[in-house]
TrEMBL record:
GO terms for molecular function: GTP binding; uracil phosphoribosyltransferase activity. CDD domains: PRTases_typeI (cd06223). Transmembrane segments: none annotated. Pathway: Pyrimidine metabolism; UMP biosynthesis via salvage pathway; UMP from uracil: step 1/1. The lineage of its organism: Bacteria, Bacillati, Chloroflexota, Ktedonobacteria, Ktedonobacterales. Residues 1-22 are annotated as: Disordered. Its EC number is 2.4.2.9. Coiled coil: none annotated. This is Uracil phosphoribosyltransferase. Keywords: Allosteric enzyme, Glycosyltransferase, GTP-binding, Nucleotide-binding, Transferase. It catalyses: UMP + diphosphate = 5-phospho-alpha-D-ribose 1-diphosphate + uracil. Residues 35-235 form the Phosphoribosyltransferase domain.
């Protein structure tokens, strides 16, 4: 982070002087769900701790992904299913099909695994976006969206909502492709990126494990957890 420099060797501070909303200004935005679950709060502290090594960090991202999935799937459609219990037959319910998950590579991979452990029958639509650390603009480098996106819902998952650029671009890509219903889930959001995403896409639900204070001058979330991709995959 502190070694981010321009080619001329000067520090590059893309968020320096940029006005940012405070937490209180985004706490009550419509269709924004911030987890209050004590198990989530507990796991978040372990995740943020700089002494948590990559294997444990990845496992925590997956577990937090499963907890987020549980909260984000409360409105999913069900269809009837007749089954036999050991005593008699009954009509139960199963999840209606057509669930897509779009992890924003790379850091979204662990979250997608957590979602998959809860939902099982899903398609994974990988999308690679990388944030240029000097300009903070997201650049697309990989796209495995299928031809048929006539699905019930697609969940976009990415641990960090910082300036909001990666999330906004991803939702734009899914909408241009024709995806009808989109939800977004992240682990940590900065108020700045959350407000941008809410304004750009007022029609999506947003699920967050923790809302942090602000972005620092480099565009990193504070207190945050550092670089979610590097910490999952050990590439420091
Ligand atoms: O809200 P934004 O300002 O767009 O920043 C958030 C993005 O930055 C991180 O990815 P990164 O570019 O570091 O790629 P990585 O997953 O390969 O590490 C993160 O996982 C988000 O995708
Ligand atoms: O704090 C941040 C911001 C963007 N991406 C990360 O991985 N961490
Ligand atoms: Mg990264």
């Amino acid at each position: 982070m502190s070694n981010v420099t321009t080619r001329e060797g000067r520090p590059d501070l893309p968020m320096q002087g940029v006005p940012q909303p405070g937490r209180e200004q985004v706490l009550n935005l419509p269709r924004v769900h911030i987890s209050q679950h004590p198990v989530m709060v507990h796991k978040m502290t372990a995740l943020r701790n700089k002494h948590t090594p990559p294997p444990q960090f990845y496992r925590l991202v997956k577990e937090i992904g499963s907890l987020l999935a549980y909260e984000a799937t409360a409105q999913l459609d069900l269809v009837e299913k007749v089954i036999e219990t050991p005593l008699e037959s009954m009509t139960g319910y199963k999840l209606a099909g057509g669930i897509g998950i779009t992890p924003i590579l790379r850091a979204g991979l662990g979250l997608a695994e957590g979602f998959r452990e809860v939902l099982h029958d899903v398609q994974i639509w990988h999308l690679g976006l990388r944030r240029d650390e000097h300009t903070l603009q997201a650049m697309e480098y990989y796209n495995r969206m299928p031809h048929n996106v006539d699905f019930q819902i697609c969940y976009v998952v990415d641990p960090m909502l910082a300036t909001g650029g990666s999330a906004i671009d991803t939702v734009n890509i899914l909408k241009e492709k024709g995806v009808r219903r989109i939800s977004y889930a992240c682990i940590i959001a900065a108020p700045y990126g959350l407000l941008k995403l809410r304004q750009a896409h007022p029609d999506i639900d947003i699920y967050i494990a923790a809302l942090d204070e602000r972005l620092n001058d480099y565009g990193f979330i504070v207190p945050g957890l550092g670089d979610a991709g590097d910490r999952q995959f050990g590439t420091f």
